[in-house]
Specification:
Layout lengths: L1 H30 L3 H12 L7 E5 L5 H8 L3 E6 L2 H14 L4 E4 L12 E7 L8 H10 L1 E12 L8 H10 L7 E2 L2 E2 L1 H7 L11 H9 L4 E14 L2 E14 L1
Parallel strand pairs: 1-2, 1-4, 2-3, 4-5
Antiparallel strand pairs: 5-9, 6-7, 8-9
Helix pairs in contact: 1-4
Length: about 250
């Protein structure tokens, strides 16, 4: 099992290495948009500086959260497993004039000591993991007592498991899930996602159950994107994206 997970981890890293330049471009555009203000307002209202000053950005990608958090006065450490994402992140941080410690690290196997950080944040990472339960355990481990965690994620591949989601997804995308972004075939990650554990779970219900089982008692959820879908005579609400706010 460990060998299989390691192989899949490398496949995932290879894909995101290819996606890094175009992903970085989108992040920079977002950093220069109005959405940045909304993110900062959400983050600082949940984990205000200076009480929660030392932050870990997990799966930082090209540095979207890292840069805005550094600009807001946080002391930022950012980790990602993908070489090219870190290269883009360092370049972007330099262009925005902020100092951030970027480290290559697996989100499921953090090398930090227990209780190192006041605040942990992540965006669009958990769905992409081979061992999400272990990841949550690690993220909580590196948080100090009363530290806070904000995880932003979504049901990006639940259509591979749920028949209704699949029919609604196929109708919306006219039966085509694969596309090409700046020459990179997204079918690669689509095929990997078929076997990832969180493609088989309804979220954020799964996340809440796991976190409560880990002893978390202060947990709240915000559904940030949902839609009504109708297949034949059945109509359901589909959860696309969500945010998890928790205090250790």
């Amino acid at each position: 099992m460990e060998l299989r997970n390691a192989e899949k981890l490398e496949d995932i890293r290879s894909y995101w290495n290819l996606r890094a330049p175009s992903f970085s471009k989108g992040n920079v555009e977002e950093l220069n948009s109005e959405s940045k203000k909304e993110w900062i307002q959400t983050i600082t209202s949940f984990a205000p500086v200076p009480e929660y000053k030392k932050v870990l950005d997990i799966g930082c990608g090209p540095g979207f959260f890292s840069i805005m958090l550094a600009q807001a006065g946080y002391q930022v450490t950012a980790v990602d497993y993908t070489d090219n994402m870190l290269e883009e992140a360092r370049k972007n941080a330099g262009n925005f004039g902020v100092e951030i410690e970027f480290l290559q690290m697996d989100a499921q196997n953090l090398t930090f000591d227990d209780g190192t950080f006041d605040f942990v944040i992540s965006r669009n990472v958990t769905w992409n993991l081979e061992q999400p339960v272990k990841a949550y355990s690690e993220w909580l481990r590196v948080l100090r007592p009363n530290g806070r965690l904000l995880n932003n994620d979504g049901n990006y591949y639940y259509h591979y498991t749920d028949d209704f989601y699949n029919k609604a997804y196929s109708e919306k995308h006219q039966g085509h899930s694969h596309k090409v972004i700046d020459g990179v075939d997204t079918g690669v990650i689509d095929n990997i996602a078929r076997e990832l554990p969180l493609s088989k779970e309804m979220r954020p219900q799964w996340d809440c159950s796991i976190l409560l089982g880990m002893g978390i008692t202060d947990l709240s959820v915000k559904i940030s994107s949902k839609e009504k879908a109708k297949v034949s005579d059945e109509e359901r609400e589909i959860i696309n994206k969500f945010q998890l706010f928790l205090v250790k």
